[in-house]
Amino acid sequence: MPLVQDRVVITAALTGVLATREQCPDLPYTPAEIGEEARRAYEAGAAVVHIHGRAPDGGPTWSVETYADIKREVQARSPIIVNFSTGGFNMGGVEGEAEKTERLTYVWKTRPEMAALNMGSMNYAKYSAARKAFVFDMVFPNPFGDILLAVRAMREGGVKPELECFDLGHVANAQPLLEMGALRRPLQYSFVLGVLGGAPPSAETLAAMARSIGREDTWEIIGIGRAQWRLVGAALALGGNVRVGLEDNFYLDAAGRQMARGNGPLVEKAVRMARDVGREPMSPDEARKALSLPQAW
């Protein structure tokens, strides 16, 4: 269905894969901690939670057991929509198709309602102007063959893909997959702006990306770092959905001085911003209808 101008789907990205507790003490690692953060996000007004599996030491994991525990802990506390990440399944020395497919087992075995589908390769970096140096600098490889592996895992589990696009070219990458029948409309896009190597984080960029998708498709903004709140405001004005959370940004202010004590306060701010422009947050059930869940394969 088309975007509902007076309603908005708010997603909370709870933990991410790169951030650590040294950077943000309230970042959840364990399934129980993630479940509690999901409950707080739901009570604050979120309809969806986006989740990366974390090992007890905070490192990334693709363990079926960990993701199953996360889903169980989340659903025991709230009716929020569960969206699992597939980011990085093809990194870290994993070369063969069989190994990559094995890493994706958690997607079709745990069957979240949604899962992120990265739509292209890119430089992925963070630059410190104060230090005149890169904080991190990597290449995120994601050829079409790997995108199709992730789609196959989602299809196997009846999971709705969430197309994460860091540039306008990533948006266009959906077209051949639609022609092949690998993807079906309506699509859900996430425009990720603020990562060095991707499109610049501006309202003009966001508007161009929003104009490039199908009329029946839906979209949200994922603003990374200090640009987040400006981009949330732009998305709300354009009629899109929004994502906030500790994966993307730690701070309640654009200057980066007031660190959020968990995901709940970030969602609360997004709710206030939405209501200030006349848009009411959707409940999980309303969001399921707006996002065409469950996915019809």
What CATH architecture would you give? Alpha-Beta Barrel
Helix content: 25-40%
The CATH C-level name is Alpha Beta
Radius of gyration: 17 Å
Descriptive account of the structure:
The chain is built from eleven helices and twelve strands. By secondary structure, it is α/β, with parallel strands linked by helices. The longest helix has 14 residues. The chain is globular.
Q: Care to give the gist of this entry?
A:
The chain is built from 11 helices and 12 strands. By secondary structure, the chain is of the alpha/beta class.
Notable features of this structure?
alpha/beta; 11 helices; two-stranded parallel sheet; 297 residues; 36% helix; 20% strand; globular
Protein topology:
Blueprint: E1 7-8, E2 10-13, H1 31-44, E3 48-51, H2 64-75, E4 81-84, H3 97-103, H4 105-110, E5 114-118, E6 122-128, E7 133-140, H5 144-157, E8 160-165, H6 168-172, H7 174-180, E9 188-193, H8 203-211, E10 218-223, H9 228-238, E11 241-244, H10 263-276, E12 280-281, H11 284-290
Parallel strand pairs: 1-12, 2-3, 2-11, 3-4, 4-5, 5-8, 8-9, 9-10, 10-11
Antiparallel strand pairs: 6-7
